[in-house]
Amino acid sequence: MKRKLKYILSLSAKFTYFETARILHSRNQLSRIICGYPWFKLRNENIPKRFVSSHGIYNILKYPFLSIEFAKKYLDFFGILNKKNIDKQTLKIIEKNNDYDVLLGLAGVALQSAKKVLDKKKIFICERSSSEIGYQNILLADEYKICDRNYKTTNSWFIDNEQKEYELADIILTPSNFVKNSFNKNLQDKIKVINFGVNTDNFYKDKSIKKSDKYFDILFIGQISIRKGLHYLLEAFNKFKHPHKRLHIVGSHTFDKDFFIKKLNDDNIKYYGHVNHLELNNIINKCHVFVLPSIEEGFATVILQALSAGCPVIVSENTGAMEFVNDNNCGYVVPIRNSNSILEKLDLMSQNKDIIDNFSNNAIKKMKKQTWESYVDELDLFINQVKKN
User: Fold this and answer.
1) Where are the beta strands (DSSP E) in the chain?
2) pLDDT tens-digit profile of 235-281?
3) Topology of the domain comprising 7-197+371-388
4) pTM for this one?
5) CA 245/CA 232 separation, integer angstroms
6) Is domain 216-367 in CATH 3.40.50.2000, yes or no?
């Protein structure tokens, strides 16, 4: 019988890694997860503490300043310390523990630990969850210029550190072809694309919740930021002529708060802030369409969450979900920076319930298979192929 691969996971925050870690733990494949979150934020993740190395001090220190524009240098300082600390803690574990085959590190946290892993002839996977960091920086700088806003350029330490990891990695793991194509040509051969999964226990079609027959409810989930392209949705919503329109916005404010605060002051817009999964699933089930017009993403997991609850989507081509949405006929893909395209799709869907129903049925059918279990299956399969080669 083939021995199961064992994983060490390392990351500076939380991200989707605990979804992966739960599956690995249930299959006796998790050696350790090293995380930049405090334990009190992780204790409900259903992974025994002995498998979790939590180091949350720097994220705790950052938290009060996340939406304060002048605090960026402070945030960068603690962000660097956080990533260095995760790398240091991972290195300590790797030096003492040989019960693993793979180090899967979120880009930017594993430069020194990766070198030790490679010295031990084990596999290092660098996961980049958004577009390549240099490419991302250029794309967002352009968008802030369009919005006549000052862009806080990504600290060079983050860029240099990640790009060194790309070169070291046996595999660069990305969630979409959009991310893959943002990398230099010389790295393409080591890039593997695996779309994210969704937790269908948290996000599902709730038959007890009925969508309004009178109102047309539009949903946005994400940080209130220029990066997420919310301003293009707001432009489309303002032009949208439906007599009973509502826009529901779920997410936390960022440095861009003053850019959006007046734009959100509309009787037809309901702002929720951050909500838990149960409330989020209820909100999704009440809405007719989810819109995410991001300037760049990796593969926004909120898209899969909306689809899992049967809510069709309108997403930009830079959300990472372009092929997924088109291949599964569960929504529309629009160009970035194009409120008129969003408006066109809103008009089309609001005037034709059959389109919504068809997209919704296709989404529910597909998402039953788009689980984190299938994500880990695909990851295992690919790594075993690499080992053979």
Assistant:
1) 7-11, 30-35, 52-54, 102-106, 123-127, 171-174, 191-193, 216-221, 245-250, 269-273, 289-292, 313-316, 331-334
2) 999 999 999 999 999 999 988 999 999 999 999 999 999 999 999 99
3) Rossmann fold (3.40.50)
4) 0.93
5) 17
6) yes
